[in-house]
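Help wanted!
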Amino acid sequence: MKSFRKELFFNTTKRMEFINITSHVEKALEESGIQEGLCLVNAMHITASVFINDDEHGLLSDYAKWLEELAPHEPLSRYRHNLTGEDNGDAHHKRQIMGREVVVAVTGSRLDFGTWEQIFYGEFDGRRRKRVLVKIIGE
Amino acid sequence: MKSFRKELFFNTTKRMEFINITSHVEKALEESGIQEGLCLVNAMHITASVFINDDEHGLLSDYAKWLEELAPHEPLSRYRHNLTGEDNGDAHHKRQIMGREVVVAVTGSRLDFGTWEQIFYGEFDGRRRKRVLVKIIGE
Amino acid sequence: MKSFRKELFFNTTKRMEFINITSHVEKALEESGIQEGLCLVNAMHITASVFINDDEHGLLSDYAKWLEELAPHEPLSRYRHNLTGEDNGDAHHKRQIMGREVVVAVTGSRLDFGTWEQIFYGEFDGRRRKRVLVKIIGE
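Answered by r_m:
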């Protein structure tokens, strides 16, 4: 069994932001030399998500609006977590809706995807440098 | 290390529909010959989910009602995604609540489940032929 | 390839409760002797979650309040599932928001975590003995 690990880094400029990271994960898979196995991609932050969906501009803005309805940023007093001095209580909730991680099959040295599947990093407390972990096992 | 891949196909007849696919995944596991490992089951579509819960008719209708409250199908104008000509903006949201995939332990050639765990395909933009991927690695 | 399996048991005293199980998973990893691989941690119950987030008291109480808003326990008649004689319809919904499982990378014999990642068992129909499965594969 082979294993491969890589950290990806992203500089986010807005509080909430979605970044298509598929090509970065594909590059990691190529570097790994793994042909058959499983590829884990997870946010290393607890106010961020990794998820798979469609790379369509309107949909991503729909997600932003919907997540803001389900877990509004303001009023800050809505979240006891913000009593710690943080202002990211909402981000911890948004991340639970969108998920921490994806696991993708690796088949014939490629991400084994349906037609429209793309991997996104979802940032909910951005404006700093953030990390995503790629771990691939197989052979 | 062994790996095994199989696509499952389902013809859905309604827009929203839940199909218990546990026996199909068990059959794939049997075909794989894998005794110890991990089994990934994921929707290959971005308006569908694979999830694990109880096979109880009332619960599945509760899910349908609740998902419709959290991400209503109409008005179609609610979703910028629908400006592309699609009418499935809601389905992309429902899928995020229910999840894309499950990872199940394989122990002693069987899905290593609690008493009531059953695997479902959740369709949110149905009435066509859909695919689910099963990928098993182990030995 | 090595594989390792362990069940963790928890006695929950409240209907809704969050238990930090990170040290239990770390102990299982140590017992496994696995240095590189993937570690699956999943609830074996369908009214419970395993998820990763921050071990901050205020945040956990925020989650409890938010989940109660998204899927209220009462009125019991809200859920057709409760017609079976159960009163846990809400718990099946809360679990879908928070997720069934996490998959964690194992690197250098350790859980490969970002700074604040902690693993929680989230109970939504508690006051009895509950099980969590840890399955690790790798070498």
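OP: Thanks! One thing I noticed: The CA atoms of residues 96 and 126 of chain B lie 16 Å apart.
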